[in-house]
Amino acid sequence: MSTIVLLTMTGLGLGALYFLVASGLSLIFGLMDVLNFAHGALLSIGAYGTWWAASGRLPGAGPGGWGFALAVLFGTAVGTLAAVVLELAVVRPLYTRPREQVLATVGVGLAVPALLSGIWGPDARTFPGPEALSGTFALLGADVPVDRLVLVAAAVAVLVALRLFLGRTRHGLVVRAGVEDRAMVTALGIDVRKAFTLVFAIGGCAAALGGALGGLYFGSVDPHQGTSLLIFAFVVVVTGGMGSVTGAAVAAVVIGLVQQFANYYTAAGLGDLAVVVLLAALLLVRPRGLTGRLA
Amino acid sequence: MSTATTPAPTSVSTAPGGDRNRLLRWWPAAVLVLLIVAPWSALPLPGLLDGPVGSPGSLQLLATCLLFGALATGYDLLLGRTGLLSFGHALYFAAGSYATNMFLLEAGLPFAAAAVLGVCSGAALALVLGSVSLRVTGIGFSMVTLAFAQAGSILVSRDPGGFTGGEEGRAAPAELLPSWLVGIDHTANLYWIALAYLVLTLAVVHRAVRSPTGRVWEGIKENERRVEVLGLKPYGFKLTAFVLAGALAAAGGLVHLLLTGGSTPRTTTSDFTLSLLVMVVLGGTGTRWGPMVGGILYTWADHRLGDLAGSGAVAGLPAVLRVPLSQPLFLLGVLFVAVVHLLPGGLARLPSRLRRTREENR
């Protein structure tokens, strides 16, 4: 029983991480038809920003207490800024050419991890975290690490915030309408390009937060963490139905759980395969993903 | 990329000066002859190559360039000809290499049989996975191919059953290979094999895109819905392109196995497919020579940038310049972004773009 609880919590933590990456990816894709290959790079930037600040290089930030909160805030802000720069400098000039927007993000996705590994070395760096978050708590007889709970809480907060933003605000309305029918929104005289930058900022913010908390979850940061998480985030986006945030949330939970359970009960590494098999099976039955949305 | 394709810059117009143009048309044959005789040449190309052209080191680099030129040409069958952005092409390349190696090592088959079976395995894998991933269109297809390639990559690096050698990769058994393919003295033979593979790929792609199926591919690239309206099912045509490209990639994996003397897990990573993508876009998608030129240039640049990174000139620079310059992938990534922005159509469209600019300025 305790194993199942632990696996469930770990799976949920991983799912939360996937959701943080996939939600922005899904929105950007839904709105702009751009598969953002640099999204993993944004995550890495967030992770390295947090690591840099938490290692005591930023005044006031540190590995414990409020210092760590400030470090996470700093990492997330850097990631958000990077996302805005990415949109303005790389993606926007190719406004009318979605395919080439994707290609340009591929280039950024190659360059950023290389740059990170050039600056801080190709090896993983130990991630400093607060004492309070490295402990465990008892749940139904299992000792569950606290960081899982932090990840799940962050993901739920992001999901709620996104739903409120999309459902209750005017900007959210534009984004939602843009996801449904970009041409129509443009025809109504609304500048969708502002919505693009906004969505990139939101996506970058979520991904960078994912990077900061992912460092806590994995205990280390390395330049290629973002890229490997990105691939599973792609699986989540396809499974959940492209452009749907709620679909991404459901798919992230399912995929995180399947991966953890399969990794534990079969050989390690088979969980990653199981996820891909799951995706293939789903596509054979429902080519449009869980929520039935298709690009 | 859905803009109408302008004729490839190599196509010869019937404008005045026909005699010169008729001669110019034979330049590929001339280049081919030059490439065939290259191993006998002792010409030094300082800056381009470390040693004379015919030295084993240079031949190895040239062969790798030709191999990737061919691989990019085969990959463009999907991207530039059919409009399919696959992120899993490395999988079929790696499958050709690993399967051949396994048939040699585990089944003890003679080399020729192992090679044929290896390439067939790659094609069969492409058939199975292509039939699943083509159920989704657009960028969904890209993501699914990437997911499959990732699964392949995980499988290779985790190495269940001890077939792949995990992170170490697996060396090809020198004693089971024909003796004329092994050893530094026979680098020229490997070079010719790579050249033959390039010629084969160019011929296959050229023939395929001019066949009736190739016309349908072009239609699918321009507007898939219209092809459906004409009463054709795009799925089968797309699958044909996918399997053909997969088979060509698997053959490339076989050449790579011979050239490097083993299978390495690096060829299964998504970075590897992305570098193929960079080659094709750099050279120009959907053109006859573009992907080949892109592949050759990229491979050469990657190699030389690696040398540059380790050179004393870079080590002496201040950190702001040294750090980015020491990362070939960073430079290539930035170069790629620049090409996408500044050079739509890649290098292959550069001559016609220059000509147009010159005419406008006249």
UniProtKB/TrEMBL annotation, chain A:
Subcellular localization, as worded in the UniProt entry: Cell membrane
Presence of keyword Membrane: yes
Pfam families the record matches: BPD_transp_2 (PF02653)
Stretches that traverse the bilayer: 6-27, 34-54, 66-90, 102-120, 149-166, 195-218, 230-257, 264-285
Topology class, membrane: Multi-pass membrane protein
Coiled coil stretches, renumbered: none
InterPro entries for the chain: ABC_transp_permease, BCAA_transport_permease
Protein origin, superkingdom: Bacteria
Key words, A-Z: Amino-acid transport, Cell membrane, Membrane, Transmembrane, Transmembrane helix, Transport
Family: Belongs to the binding-protein-dependent transport system permease family. LivHM subfamily.
Name of the protein this chain belongs to: Branched-chain amino acid ABC transporter permease
Species of provenance: Streptomyces glycanivorans
Upper taxonomic lineage: Bacteria, Bacillati, Actinomycetota, Actinomycetes, Kitasatosporales
TrEMBL record, chain B:
Listed PANTHER family: ABC TRANSPORTER ATP-BINDING PROTEIN, HIGH-AFFINITY BRANCHED-CHAIN AMINO ACID TRANSPORT SYSTEM PERMEASE
Keywords from the named record: Cell membrane, Membrane, Transmembrane, Transmembrane helix
Topological type in the membrane: Multi-pass membrane protein
Main location: membrane
InterPro entries: ABC_transp_permease (IPR001851), LivM-like (IPR043428)
CDD domains: TM_PBP1_LivM_like
Record's keyword annotation contains Iron: no
Protein name per its UniProtKB record: Branched-chain amino acid ABC transporter permease
Residue ranges of the TM segments: 26-45, 57-77, 84-105, 111-129, 190-209, 235-259, 274-298, 329-348
Keyword Transmembrane helix listed: yes
Compartments it resides in: Cell membrane
